[in-house]
Design goal:
two-stranded antiparallel sheet, 2 domains, Alpha-Beta Plaits, alpha+beta, single chain
Length: 236
């Protein structure tokens, strides 16, 4: 083998090693997105006890805005990853206050309609948007039955480095994935003064959230769509 070929092979081996280190986070994200992780072991979700969710309390919304660098505005051009809504049972007149965010569906329609693959679901059930692939077409916003996604209209400042955002892209609740990957709870669950938001692994039968879902009545919003959301509501 010529000396040139030997040197070329050594260079390629070193280059591949450097590349493996530099793109390791991306590879992990890709693996989680495409099911190379154990999808049956973990599925993150929330159980929200609506009876303890006080009307007028917005602590979860404020915590989400602070954690993710959102403006907190409520205009049509402002990003709202979580919002409080009031629903009324027509037959009984009973009114309920609850937080509404991305439901992190098992079968997310936003992923189905995305033409670039920017919208994707990790193997642990968290639905995200890859800002590098999003072209701002907003098909996912039209497909989401929960109106959970926002479009970034204006340039962004004072961003949280752990939560990359970008003008001209779509975004929504990430369930504070940057915190979850560090073994922490989502900001909204931590901030709730009444502990109304229970976060945990739906696939672990011994977890607090799985145990509670087995023992109390809970509901999925728009269960008729067959999306199997990862967010459940107690008391609806």
């Amino acid at each position: 083998m010529s000396e040139i070929n030997v040197q070329r092979r050594q260079f390629l081996k070193m280059s591949m090693g450097v590349a493996a280190v530099s793109i390791a986070p991306g590879i992990f994200l890709f693996d989680m997105a495409h099911g190379k992780a154990d999808a049956n072991k973990v599925r993150w979700g929330m159980l929200i006890e609506t009876a303890n969710c006080a009307e007028g309390c917005n602590d979860c919304v404020t915590a989400c805005n602070t954690e993710n660098g959102l403006s907190g505005g409520v205009n049509s051009t402002d990003s709202q990853w979580i919002r409080k809504i009031e629903i009324k049972d027509i037959s009984t007149g009973r009114e309920t206050s609850l937080p509404m965010m991305c439901q992190h569906c098992e079968h997310p329609p936003c992923v189905d309609v995305c033409p670039t693959g920017a919208s994707f679901k990790r193997a642990d059930g968290i639905v995200l948007v890859d800002k590098h692939l999003c072209i701002g077409c907003r098909y996912c916003m039209m497909a989401c039955p929960y109106k959970a996604r926002s479009f970034v209209h204006e340039p962004l400042q004072n961003q949280n480095p752990d939560v990359p955002r970008g003008r001209g892209t779509v975004e929504s609740c990430t369930m504070c994935v940057h915190r979850i990957d560090q073994g922490q709870q989502p900001a909204c669950a931590v901030a709730c003064p009444n502990k109304s938001i229970l976060f945990g692994n739906l696939n672990d039968p011994d977890s607090e959230i799985a145990t509670k879902i087995r023992t109390v009545a809970s509901a999925q919003v728009r269960a008729d769509l067959g999306l199997n959301p990862g967010v459940r509501y107690q008391g609806l």
